[in-house]
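Title: Prediction job returns without error message
Component: structure pipeline
Severity: low
Priority: P3
Assignee: unassigned

Description:
Job completed but the reporter wants confirmation the result is attached to the right record. Sequence as submitted:
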Amino acid sequence: MAAYSFRSVIFDLDGVVTRTASVHGKAWKTVFDDYMKMREKRDAEPFREFTHESDYLPYVDGKPRYQGVKSFLESRNIHIPFGDASDPAGKETVCGVGNKKNDHFREILKRDGAEVFSSTIDLIKQLKEVGVKVGVASSSKNCKIILESVGHGNLFETRIDGVVSAELGLHGKPEGDIFVVAAEKLGTEPRESIVVEDATSGVQAGRNGGFGLVLGVARENNESDLLEHGADVVVRDISEINIEWIEKWFRRKPKPLPGEQADRETGFEPDPEKDGLKFKINPAYLRSGKDLISDKRKFVFFLDYDGTLTPIVSRPDLAVISKEMKSTVEKLSGKHMVAIVSGRMREDVEGLAEIKDIFYAGSHGFDILGPGFSMIHPKAKEAISVVAEVIEKLSKKLSNIEGLIIEKKKFSVAVHYRLVDEAKHLPQIKAFVENIAKEYGSLCLMKGKKVFELLPNISWDKGQAIRWIMKALKLSWKESSCVYIGDDVTDEYAFRSMRTRGTGILVSKDLRPSAADFWLSSPDEVRSLFEKIIALPS
């Protein structure tokens, strides 16, 4: 059995696996038209019918039922009490209207049944045959009965639907919670997983969840909308893509930016036609380095510290930013917004950089401080005592290993083995750290360049921190040219968050597979890029 770089695929249900969108559409139309006619009669409001293109697709499709009700009504400037899930069908609350829709949906489903997309079922079977895990994630609370009605109740290895979401308190789309939890249940991570979605809110959720590939299925002739909202690739039908091309995607390398090296490797150049396929690639992947430099929008820079603003050094305390780089970043921050996003403690990286009036996000984004803003993730605070306990255990067990550095942080602890005799000690270090991670369920293990790090096991990373800063500053992704530059495994979270709405730049001596768009070989080339951007006319 071939080993693939991706380990799981998580499918939306309606419009991807089953053809139930028309059933949902009929139920929504009946309920909303009845409600709007009632308001016309009672309140003398002009009646305007609920339509598929203008109402169902932008306000309802892909969203949890009550969220869909609220979204549509607000689009008509109608505000009614939210109510409770136990409200009787038809009560004039968001929940009451949603419950009435659900009753209509079940009636239509029982009467007319549902269909499946055979090409999707075929792909699922192929994936399972080669050992790739499959799950279904849907906002619908009817997911189970729909699958059972079409004879596929046992097709998926995990199911995260509206019922499970309510039990776990998950956020609905466009947040990525249901897909992230599905990946966890399959024993995989988003970075090695695929989301398959037909709704704009769903592809947004896949991107926000940091998934390795977000595949849009354009059942509604909506390729452009899906691409605009974050799909990496869009097909009209699942038959337009295959496992081999997906594997090629997961092995892609960023394209080189013009730099000091004369002879550079070539990065990933997506070309469906060359592979005999029909799907569309997001235009973001077709950009060149010249497109980045010539962008007329205001830049927003998010920068890793170690390996990006400074070379990688043998000890963390030796990573002091050069005078030249510091001066360049200060000039850059005078023209554009700059944030340093680091795995180091925020106070640590702030003290090393000593650059004023910029944002600092430390501990992989758990601790953020900038002009007029500050945030410490509340769940990270809860881990402080646990981290202190783990530091004590690590020190007792591993501190006698020559060259090992245990970096003690507030919210995490990093075990650096760059100076260790790896042949002699690495198996012991790795086994002990992995056992600690298993023992403390509130912590997770992250592996970087010659380092193991134990940090709070919560859905937060550099990518999430970037989204928080963008929202806190009310910065528009569309109106800004957002760039993240980093060198390590932990920076891949940020690269995936940037994907299709910003630019990721990998800093690495050698070109390697990455979710970044472009590649520079050293901090010196990073500084050269900054100088080119500083020189651009304002």
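Comment from assignee: result matches the submitted record. The CA atoms of residues 128 and 134 lie 7 Å apart.
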